[in-house]
Design goal:
Layout (H helix, E strand, L loop, with lengths): L28 H15 L3 E12 L5 E6 L4 E6 L1 H4 L11 E11 L4 E11 L2 H18 L17 E5 L4 H13 L5 E5 L7 H15 L4 E6 L13 H9 L4 E5 L7 H5 L2 E2 L3 H8 L3 H36 L3 H44 L3 H39 L2 H6 L4 E4 L18 E4 L4 E4 L13
Parallel strand pairs: 3-5, 6-7, 6-8, 8-9, 9-10
Antiparallel strand pairs: 1-2, 1-4, 2-3, 4-5, 11-12, 12-13
Helix pairs in contact: 4-8, 5-6
Amino acid sequence: MHSRSSFSPSGPAASSAGGPFDSDIAIPVSVLNRTIGRLLERSFPLVWVAGEVSNFMRAASGHWYFSIKDGEAQMRCVMFRGRAQYAEFTPREGDKIEVRALVTMYEPRGEIQLNVEAVRRTGLGRLYEAFLRLKTKLEAEGLFAAERKRPLPTHPHAIGIVTSLQAAALRDVLTTLARRAPHIPIVIYPAPVQGTGAGEKLAAMIEKANARREVDVLVVCRGGGSIEDLWAFNEEVVARAIAASELPVVCGVGHETDITIADFAADVRAPTPTGAAELVSPQRTMLLRELDQRRAALARGFGRLAERRAQQLDWLARRLVSPAERLRRQRVHLQQLQARLASAGARPVRDARARFALVRLRWERWRPDLGAHRQALSGFARRLDATLARQHERHAAKVASLGARLELLSPQRTLERGYAALLDGRTGHAVRATGELKRERRYELHLAQGAADVSFGDVQPRLTDTF
């Protein structure tokens, strides 16, 4: 028995000419099926396949097994639980569907099958493309712009509903409005919500509600369903009627996951018809509670106003006096004015006298005292004479000291001690060494008393110790 690896397409046998396997070597069926499966998965990408459902079965594991067929052929399909749980519907026998699948091989039985990743009803792809085209077109025109959205009235006087009289959504909306706001009248504008011509009739009812002007807000709603069931709300005529409406429009179509063109055109989108009813209706209990609070606040305000008026009345009553008392008060007031007038007349004289006394005092304080100044000048003169005398004495002593020092250093005193000074007759410089003596040159000899011209016939220098 050959090992499995020797028959793999990537093994040695794959290198022989003429194909992936050596025609002389027997291979197991499992290897053949696995190889075919890999070739199929590489050759066929994910594709959409259309057909009719046959032999549908949901296994206990949650996987779906069925066949998809047309008039000439069929193909087995499997959709595993991880994909099937996100499908929007469960196929039934005879349904026309489209599946997005990968062509694979079921190796144990050697059967080719489709591994389904998504499923939709036939035509949904075209509907979705039409939905995207219309959405792009209307969005480019500005029908979905946020600045054109109108706010909903806080307290509407009447609410209009555009839907079918047989729709279950109408009962939900009416029940919600009766619970939340039974005092608000309801006007129903009946129109079919699916089928041929439903879009034109919905648009006509919206225009009629705007023309009659008997409501403050419109609710356009219907229950959930497939994309075909909700297609009337994806028609351009409905979107344009909603955008042109002068009344604010709340759209509550299908379930929370259902999105239609009408949702984008409406002023407010509600997740469900019940949610739309809650958006347009104020809750009666909340209104009554707010009314009670405002009534209590108004009563408190009136009470405080009455208290302030009563206090003001008491103050005015205290100010109200008899004519005799008023005359007495005026008489007292006149006496006070007379006293103030007399005081005001005497006050300038007192002020002038006080100012005069102050000026005189200041003048007396600042008048010069000549005797004190003379005495001060005499003191300054004596101090100046004493200072000059001391300064003269110091200078005289200093001159005497300097004269003594000069006398001590005088050349004459040196000559008197027995020394002589010998000067060169030509240059007048002092001769300080025997080497400077020249024969037959005239020199000047200075002594303590007088001077003489001398010359030397023969100069014999000798070394002597200096004193």
